[in-house]
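The material for today's practical consists of a large collection of protein records. There is nothing in a record beyond a sequence line and a structure line. Backbone structure tokens are a discrete shorthand for how the chain folds in space. Nothing more is needed to start thinking about how sequence determines fold. As an example, a complete record with its sequence and its structure tokens follows.
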Amino acid sequence: MGSALNVRSETGHLREVIVHTPGAEMELVSPDALDELLFEDILFVGNAREEHLVMRAVFEKVIGEPGGVVEIVDLLSATFEGQAARRDFVEKLCLVTPERNLQAFADDLVDLGPEGLTNFALTGASPLPIYAQPLPNLLFTRDVAAVVGEIMVLSHPATAARARESLIMNAVVSHHPRFTDQRDHIVRLPRGVTFEGGDLLVASDTTVIVGCSERTSFGGVVSLTRALFERTGIENVIMVDLPNQRSCMHLDTVFTFAEPDLCVVYPPIIEAQGLSNVVCFRKGASGDSLECEPYPSLKDAIEDVLERSFTFVACGGGDPLNQQREQWTDGANFFSLAPGVVIGYERNGRTFEAMARRGYRVVEAQSFLEYHRESDFDPGQKLAIKLEGNELSRGRGGPRCMTMPLRRA
């Protein structure tokens, strides 16, 4: 049985994280289906895998303990060793995809066994005369759930294309031994609302920031807020109302933490004035009521709520065109491995230059691994690690999108 869930900040030293290295599902993505699948491009899968495995190696070095980087496919395959888990997954899949008429083959799907059903869950392919689309977006494990403190909130995807991803995570937490002691720490939001993990950032042990976006509805924000107030020590939920645009589908595409008080931001959205798009929810005086306080900007909100000053570093540097170009390739989507230790795509050079001006030593991922080949990693200096992501970035998601932390120190 695994350790307890524990995420109380965006920057605590990483201890356990769920990822998905691109596999057979990527080979089945048709150019004609990209819009339906909500995916951006056809990836050169071999190169994408190599880039992802380098990222995994960096995580493993930083974590410093075996088993800290967990593949969601391994979790799912072990989950499906149990027939009850397979049947539960198939029943739920039939309910959320009635147009596929899978119910006529429900028993056959269960009988595929662990390997066959895992392959079907990821690729949609099987020996049966049925078909489902592959899941290229499973690469972005951030969106299947979010851990806040010691509880996990499962996603409610906004689109049918990602519904199966949510069922995969639900099957894992419901049946895998890793989560036996966490069964009572799972939050399932009510039907009719939408929520994806890329819209939630844990600013402190009392405050989270949530994006109301094309993927997370206002109802999702309110339901999430009530659940966090009831089941965690969270006292403040800062909501940022984002434009309904593909380029900023989640909050973490325009805003991430590098240190407890330093954030990387896309200024045209995060620093724009006069939008009236930031509010803070707190518990009301009685019952289930919520108090709501507006703020002129996200910086004003987090500085007031957390009672300290913050530094915002512009993705792409000071030039608006460079900001647009590098946000397009996830320049603001850094993933923090420890306080002041972040990883992002090397192609966003001006963002790394901006980090260097803030005292970060910029290193390539391979150089980082070579330097630490014979030594443990000690997070004693500010590091900005450049990941070669020429293929991964074509899927329009950065390192934070590709990670779902379970534990931080």
